[in-house]
Design a protein that fits this description.
Elements: H1 3-11, H2 14-27, H3 36-58, H4 63-90, H5 96-107, H6 111-124, H7 132-140, H8 142-155, H9 162-170, H10 173-200, H11 204-223, H12 226-254, H13 259-270, H14 276-284, H15 290-321
Helix pairs in contact: 1-15, 2-11, 3-7, 3-10, 3-11, 4-5, 4-7, 4-8, 4-12, 5-8, 5-15, 6-13, 6-15, 7-10, 7-13, 9-14, 11-15, 12-13, 12-15, 13-15
Length: 324
């Protein structure tokens, strides 16, 4: 399938169109707004659903098939923040705190981008390994830890309370729901999964579309910070995800993941966190500028990945892995 056709399929999907509607609503100053409670409920639902599906798939996966992709994902969680920090310091000339904050966000992962990647592959009929949600949980934490450690070493006494940040990270709702959902799914197995499928499988795409409507409005509010963020962050927010995506796809192919699995690992590597990482950075690096890391992650990288990145990473994976 040509990339132009993939782009057309992706851009006309209900998810991307709902995201665009959210952006439009904010830009035209509409009074559209989802209740905060609904936004929170949807985020809890999506994280738990991803964890459950991953756990159920893990219950049917042998350790021999899982260990190599798991180690590769862990390696990505170490390598990516180091690269991102180096680029932000050397090329962007950012402070230690701002560079480490960017490293934490780009090393960690966006669960919503992962869910969108799954939906995209389902739409174009490409299969992927069922244990991929487990890789989301593996990639969520290490990169943030590495970035905070870098800041602690390079920033010295001016850094914030990174131990408190780690505690908040590990006990955050995103980690608890992903890991807890996987444990529940693994213990319940396929039989238990069938009992909750009407809620956590059948309604998943609809809930994701609803959630992306809200994220479109949130992302559009970050657009106002783009002029102050500068050209470096604009380039960083697009080029670093593409590089990380290539790295993830290559790691996926090296560990014998399928075309779909390698695409998803590339998407995970290319995504930037905007739930777990901001909470940890806010505590550990209070001097870091949210106008940089939130604008880059949510205002630049997320829309790019959602609209263009998904078909791009799939096309690159097709070249590297081959097949369908």
């Amino acid at each position: 399938m040509a990339i132009v056709e993939l782009l057309q399929i992706n851009l006309l999907s209900p998810m991307v169109l709902a995201f665009a509607l959210g952006i439009t609503a904010t830009l035209v100053r509409s009074d559209l707004k989802l209740p905060d409670e609904l936004y929170t409920t949807l985020s809890i639902y999506l994280l738990l659903a991803i964890g459950l599906k991953g756990g159920i798939a893990l219950a049917q996966t042998s350790l021999a098939a899982f260990w190599a992709p798991a180690l590769a994902t862990l390696a990505l969680g170490v390598i990516i923040p180091i690269i991102a920090y180096g680029v932000a310091r050397k090329i962007g000339k950012l402070s230690v705190a701002d560079a480490a904050a960017l490293a934490a966000h780009y090393g960690s992962v966006s669960a919503v981008t992962f869910a969108a990647a799954q939906t995209f592959l389902d739409t174009v009929g490409v299969r992927y390994e069922g244990f991929m949600p487990a890789l989301v949980a593996i990639l969520e934490v290490p990169a943030i830890v590495i970035a905070l450690l870098i800041a602690q070493v390079a920033g010295g006494p001016q850094s914030g309370d990174w131990r408190k940040a780690l505690r908040e990270l590990i006990t955050s709702k995103s980690i608890l729901l992903l890991v807890g959902g996987m444990v529940i799914g693994w213990l319940a197995g396929p039989r238990g999964g069938k009992e909750v499928a009407p809620l956590f499988v059948d309604l998943f795409k609809g809930a994701l579309t609803f959630f992306l409507l809200e994220l479109g409005m949130v992302a559009a509010r970050r657009f106002r910070d783009l002029p102050s963020a500068g050209l470096f962050l604009l380039g960083f927010g697009i080029i670093i995800p593409i590089f990380n995506g290539l790295l993830g796809i290559w790691f996926g192919s090296m560990t014998s993941l399928s075309l779909g699995g390698s695409t998803i690992l590339g998407v995970l590597a290319a995504s930037a966190s905007y739930i777990a990482a901001p909470a940890a950075v806010r505590i550990a690096l209070p001097q870091a500028n949210p106008g940089f890391y939130l604008t880059a992650a949510l205002g630049i990288t997320f829309p790019f990945n959602l609209a263009i990145g998904l078909p791009l990473y799939y096309t690159i994976a097709s070249w590297i892995v081959g097949g369908h």
